[in-house]
Amino acid sequence: MAKVMSRRLFWDRTFTVLLWGAGCLVIGLTGTLFTALFWRALPLLHRQPLSELLMGTQWQPAKEAFGFLPFLIGSLGVTLTAMAIAVPLSLLTAVYLAEYARPTVRLLLKPMVDLMAGIPSVVYGVFGVLVIVPAVGKLAAFVKTYLPSVPLLTPSAPPTGYSLLAGGIVLALMVSPTVIAVMDEILRSIPMSLREAALALGATRWETVRFVVLRAGHPGIVSAVLLGFARAFGETMAVVMVVGNVPSIPKSLFDPAYPLPALIANSYGEMMSVPLYDAALMLAALWLFLSVLAVNLVAQHFLRRVRRGWAG
Amino acid sequence: MTWRRRQERWMKVAMMAATSLLIGSFFALLTVLVVKGWQAISWSMVVKLPTGGAYFGGEGGILNAIVGSLLLAVGATSLSLLVALPTALLLQPDYAGRKKFAQFLRSLLDGLWGVPSIVYGACGYALLVALGWRACLLGGLIALAFVELPIMVRAMDEALGIVPKAMKEAAYALAFTRYETMRHVVLRQALPSLVTAVLLAFGRGIGDAASVLFTAGYTDNIPRSLFDPVASLPLTVFFLLNTPFEEGQRRAYAAAFVLLVLVLAVNVLARVITKPLSRYIVR
């Protein structure tokens, strides 16, 4: 009896140690990841202060000029364009799916949205190159002829379609399913009694959504948007295929841009041949890592609080 | 009253328009890729290795990429599973006695969940350089496992969290150890959702290009060891889509088509498989 017991306790203890090992491994690996990036980026940080790197506009690795500003603006531009399209679209779709759609319609549409979220980014990239870039090119030519001097809109170079807008549209398509999934979950977790109270007071369904459901769920909706932002900010392959990749600050929606992830993806071949080039790219990766980590942590913190709030 | 009714109607129209726009683009994407892919694909495309010079319209198929992608995704998913399952179990209240630790680990994984895969790729590359290796299957596996890990842990954590507390308490009341409770009760009860989690991570892994771009390299052959470079479907698409030669472009479309079919199949499987696995679940 004692023997059996000790064997069982032995396995239990071994298993516990194993689990703790895995947990510590995850923390250790994340630490290693951060350290490796930081260590590789250090030579550049030693030579130039960070503010100078972030504000510099010249990108000439051969002359050791590493100005990140065009890429930062490119990243922000593409991401904000994407969010400007994706947020209203996702919010309307999520409200439709969660509040309006009949169960059969929902049962049909929800899996489709989930499937969309699983499609690889290169596939979105192919779609962008084949469909969205030509369409944006036509639109740009139209804008150039009929609206020759509108700031932020009139293309400053002969438009090709490979542009900020094309990148934004492709990203919006990619990010929307994820955002919808989170918003849908939040909306459905809001207690039915709140809606019933509003409807009983004579509110229409839209008024119920606007004044009760959206208001109750708004921290969750904000975090869904933040999660989408983080995802769009770091997305690489789909963007690099359609955004044009010209390292200058874009002056209009139809100009090509060059976001940070695209910079890293395009330069890996040459980065070992020029001194400090790899340090510059690792710094870009570090910047991406930290900014996305921060945005995600904030978003997830809100989400957990919302979820816990309704449960308890 | 009419204003409110009109508002109701217009909002409904806007919602339906937004939904149809999204679903419509989804179908447009499927149509474009299937049409292009169907024109490009042939039996020899799928079963032949390229004979060199793919970018300039060389002969051969994309077998290297198909095998490479499967190797990478299967390997990375297994690696990731080895760490993800114990980590997810550790996050359960049965183990994470010190709550602070569980909270820290969970927020860390939440943060990692959205870290762009290009960062893992760049970091993996830095490690490869530090070790003096060149891009190889093993490097790609590790970078890809990193991409899949947070996705898998999170899905598993949710799956394990749903197991009713009363069930675990019943096991403990029968003097089960924690290990026995986990193995015979919790894992069995959560099995369908756990399998779904693994499949979803696999689907994410097989389509990820940015992490393997630096770490796995590219080759026309099938790797013979862990230290050979390996091709993958997403990179085939990425490299060959912009070639001016039609033969190369056809290969890119075929690769995108195969990738899309694989990913959709895995996603559908992840949804369907829960049924047969749910047979032994107590509701």
Helix content of chain A: over 70%
Structural class of chain B: mainly alpha
Distance between the termini of chain A: 44 Å
Supply Rg of chain B: 23 Å
Percent helix range of chain B: over 70%
Per DSSP E runs of 2 or more residues, the count of β-strands of chain A stands at 2
**Overall spatial form of chain B:** globular
User: Strand portion of chain B, in percent?
Assistant: under 5%
The fraction of residues assigned to DSSP E strands of chain A is under 5%
Ends apart, CA distance between termini of chain B: 48 Å
**The number of domains of chain A:** 2
Which architecture of chain B would the CATH scheme give at its second level? Answer: Orthogonal Bundle
Strand order of the largest sheet of chain A: 1-2
Q: Which superfamily, in CATH terms, is the homologous superfamily of the largest domain in chain A? A: MetI-like
Sum this structure up briefly.
The complex is a heterodimer of chains A (312) and B (283). Chain A has helices at residues 2-47, 50-55, 69-100, 103-118, 121-146, 164-189, 192-200, 205-216, 218-234, 237-242, 260-267, 277-311; strands spanning 59-60, 65-66.
Question: Your description of this structure?
Answer:
The complex is a heterodimer of chains A (312) and B (283). Chain A is mainly alpha-helical and 312 residues long. Chain A has helices at residues 2-47, 50-55, 69-100, 103-118, 121-146, 164-189, 192-200, 205-216, 218-234, 237-242, 260-267, 277-311; strands at 59-60, 65-66. Chain A contains twelve helices and two strands. Chain A has a two-stranded antiparallel sheet. In chain A, helix 3 crosses helix 9. The longest helix of chain A has 46 residues, at 2-47. Chain B contains twelve helices and no strands. Chains A and B meet through helix 1, helix 3, helix 4, helix 5 and helix 6 of A and helix 1, helix 3, helix 4, helix 5 and helix 6 of B.
